[in-house]
Amino acid sequence: MNAHKPEPLTLSLSVNGQTYDLQVPARKLLSDVLREDLGLTGTHVGCEHGVCGACTVLIDGRPARACLTFAAQMEGHDITTIEAVGRPDALSVLQQALHEEHGLQCGFCTPGIVMTFEHYLRENPAPTADEVRDVLSGNLCRCTGYQNIVAAVLKAAARMRGEAA
Amino acid sequence: MSDAFTEIGRALPRKEDRRLVTGRGRYLDDLAFPGALHVSFVRSPHAHARILGIDSVEAAAMPGVMGVFTGRDLDQWTTRLRLAPPIEGLQPTELTTLPIDKVRFHGDPVACVVATDRYLAEDAAECVVVDYEQIPAVTSIEEAFAPDAVLVDETLSSNMVSHQSLCVGDPAARRAEAHRVVSARFALHRHTHAPLETRGCVADWDDGRAHLNMHIGNQVPHPLRSQLAARLGLSESQVTVMSPDVGGAFGQKIALYREELAVAALSRHLRHPLRWREDRMENLMAAAHAREYECRTRAAVSETGKILGLELEIDEDFGGYCFYPANYMARVIALIMTGPYRIQDYAYEVRVALTNKCGAGPMRAPMAVTSWVMEGTIDAIARELGLDPVEVRRINALGPGDLPYTMPTGEVLEDVTPKETLETAVAAIDVAAFRERQARARSEGRYLGLGLCTVIESTTYGSEFYKSAGIPGSGHEAAWVRIEPSGAVNASVGLMGTGQGYESPLAQAVAEGLGVRSEDVTVHMGNTDIAPYGMGSRGGRGATAGGGTLYLCALKARERVLAIAASMLDLNDAGGLRMRAGHIERMIGEDWQKTGLALTDIARRAYLDPLALPEGVAPGLDFSHSYDPPAMTYSNSTHACEVEVDPQTGAISIDRYIVAEDCGTVLNPIVVRGQQQGAIAMGLSGALLEQVIYDGAGQNLSATLADYLVASPNELPEFEILHHHTPNQRTPAGIKGMAEGGVMGAIGVIANAVSDALAPHGMTIERLPLTPQSICALLQEAATSPAKRTQL
Amino acid sequence: MKPAQFTYHRPASLAEALALLRTHGSSAKSLAGGQSLGPMLNMRLARPDHLVDLNDLIELDSVRVSDDMVEIGALTRHHRVANAPELRRSLPLLSAAAASIGHYAIRQRGTIGGSLAHADPAAQLPLIAVTLGASLVIAGLQGTRNVVAADFLQSIMTVDLRDGELITALRFPLPVGGFWAFEHFSRRHGDFAIVSVALNFAQDADGKIDALRLGLGGVDTVPLRLPEIEARAQGRPADEDTIRELAAATASAIAPEDSAQVPASYRRRLAETLVIRAFQSALNREEGA
After folding, report:
1. Cα separation of B488 and B632, whole Å?
2. How far apart are CA B419 and CA C62, in angstroms?
3. What are residue B549's phi and psi, to 5 degrees?
4. How is domain C7-53 classified at the architecture level of CATH?
5. What region holds the 2Fe-2S ferredoxin-type domain (chain A) (predicted)?
6. What is the pLDDT of residue B74?
7. Out of B22, B126, B713, whose CB is closest to A146?
8. pLDDT at residue B786 is higher than 90
9. Are residues A40 and A77 located together in one domain of the fold?
10. What ipTM, to 2 d.p.?
11. What contacts 24+ positions apart, CB below 8 Å, involve A129-133?
12. C212: closest CA among C194, C197, C222?
């Protein structure tokens, strides 16, 4: 144990285009700050060792594990969470495809998958099924067996390219 | 499937998706409880040790810490769990809320820290000093049953906590007269459920009302409430269980676990809301494990491969504690072992061992090993007799003429189609063409294999089953349907979904029974103050017990609605009326014609103008129903897969995977297909990758998701699913249930396929998981000692 | 699973970072991408009093290709190493290996310097650094020093990095030949390999193997380069017999230890197989090109 107790840090965080001023301990994980301090509970915590991918958010537009990031590091960076991607009555193209293809069951891993592919499909708008599987390997799903998720991502990609699917 | 249905069978995408894909689901940890305190458990670093003392002085004085509590503290505020059902051969067990005198596995909780946040709670948990005296750990079935074994539970006479046997017919005589007696062995390894959302709860004691609000993702809210009330000395009126969205369970969220009871007791003691969210290491180490079996079969067979008699031995490693009666899982395996085959002379012996590992519980397909054992035995018969494994299946499989078929254990199979699914799968995968490819590949040093596995899946356990199996419990389910004054349709049932996607298919069952659109029905689950007392979600009972009860309840509601409609239309009776999509229609001539009357009109009459209701009809539109399904319902399937084994690395690739499945009437084909895929994936992931690993000292070596390997999309094939739909004649709407058979079939089919691939080496898979290193070890062994023909 | 307390520092310059590391000595740990350190902090396997965040040192996120070498800043993320066109051209072996690290999101954050400093014996980038003879540029308050990767990596998670020092860059000599391959085997996609093999060579005018560099990961406490096998290959035709002989010699040259789940014999077998496959894939690629 450390004998001293460091003071909480005063931070200004930019999340989903909004600026939040808050005080948090240096060691507090970004995943916990998003969920507990900002009430953005769509980012899920599945393992806290970077394997499951449920907590994936975008940092400056790129996917990252919120559980392997300290909120203190994020001053000056833009964070995007699932709350900024679609709403129940206005799903994103990818979310709509996941719904249609039954690409989720319990839904706990789903926000991490959506965040990963919202970025990836911009980088690679026409992925192959193997490429989708490679990227999806960073997001564990215990329910679906992945087949429908892959189908949904391919469908979303086709729609985003303006192809009928 | 019956064409008569209009709502059942519709391919409706799931209602819950919209909130879940947008991160608006509400899982336990998403619920805000201002001022709630956080709990962290101190866990044993040893597999087996006496607790000599616990010093929490330093921890209790740390910043934010509200208290540190031990097993001794909790023993004052909770009663112990005593499991002593009157089952022959089952030793009674009792356990305290937290261990007091000794720990029984690596990860056993010994103290509970309550603090203002989880970070501070973990800081303090590190500073609780427990004085342990280590005891030798029992880490295998063999060690547990050794004559001088250390006792895991010192109140018992031995580590054999359960021992049952049965002998039907005369298997010894069949063996004596048999052309050949074929022996086979099957060792399934320890798994764990690993739901993406770990366990957790918020206990919110309302001191003014003396009432416990327990928020917890759980499959069986009402039975959990009964347990909580009993263990806390409260009445069932003083406890409400509320299950929010749940991030997967697979059987792990049924029992009332010690941690959850401790949190509830401490919320009451401290008069404060308390929250606990298990971390992943705790989940993998200490939540619940499953499936560790060693099975042996002896089949007496004729020259043609006909099975004359079967003998089965099952040993199970149950871990350190009994959260379920120790015969619970293994006995079902023994009861349904003969499954799709015509066998009458049968004997089993089931022994269950306590060891210094995490306690075992049911995991999606608690009987998962069954199909591997039976189908592996069939393959062993074919191998030893030099017969075609498809022919051995054909000669023994139950066909339409055999049904209903009473298994030697008394279990009755009806409306199942094992022979038909076998033929469908065999035709689809084209066994003959595969054998040609296989022969060509072998000549090039490549090893292809084809596996088959026919599954009889026990889905819905009625009360009669529990009674005859000697397991305490009820198999009934309860539901209510309420048409509100506006015409809105609400319904509820005692199930609780944990990701399956109940909201659409159960709405379809209600909509079908009532005569409205599924989109207009809302099903409420998970709150014990709202839902009727039902037995919850487990096994494959959701559709038959839950959907069936809702359907019957909705039929009751429809009868009343149509009676009111008849009176409003000045008809003598409702005989010529029906409701479709919420509109009353009347048969005129040969046609159904709209009457202009809708459910909204009936509801308005029932609630707002009840004096105008026909004689004897009570106001309101509120219905309840309970239903006890048949002793057991069964679905069936045949899995077929092709693999290639890389002899250099031991890697296994699955080239094709087919399943022909018959689960009767399907409420919602989208959801059913998802369950089939998910179950197969879980079975393959378990057979190929997952393994809870303990070393010889009982240290758990697989407590992260980097060590406990859940399959990624790259290890799983696409699944081709072929459908049969044979309705069960004895259940509402012909529903059978499903969602576990995929696990059973996947384990058996992959093991059989790899054995087929390794056949040129004379090697058979007798032990899972199929790690590449174990495959290479087998090949090495085959190369060095050709006489040794089976896996150690 | 929450990290223990620490004091967080976010230096704006290399000089400031070095000063902080010097001041706090062994009680400080530097944080780059956090993809390995993060889990260790969360599991409290690492518990520094001071965490020095290097992510603002953007000058260390750099790729410079010159006539005789490639210098890659320590803070360069795996995703960039895998995809930067100049790296895919000049160091395709490195790019291919980086593309196989962990998962997509991990590669967005993880850094090349962090991977070397963490020194997992199964990791990709230390293996490639050793195989290609890279050196590390290490800065301290007293100035910088260069260490070759094979000397830098001392044992499992043990490296030649003193208190107060930071890796600032890796320098890769340009490979001599156009034949290269990276082969790795893991049970699950994206996991650390059980065994991995990297190789690079040229062919002389007669098609004989020239200047082979052969490295193996996962067979020892550090990635190994095998000079005796490399020497044996010199001037030999790149045919099946040679490849098989070299692979068998590789399997005999290494001395992996039995671990809880993986017997040494299996690692040996994998090493032999992956060496063969690496040669084949190097030759096939060249044919296809």
Report:
1. 35
2. 65
3. -65, -45
4. 2-Layer Sandwich (3.30)
5. 9-85
6. 98
7. B713
8. no
9. yes
10. 0.97
11. A129/A154, A132/B713, A133/B712, A133/B713, A133/B714, A133/C189
12. C197
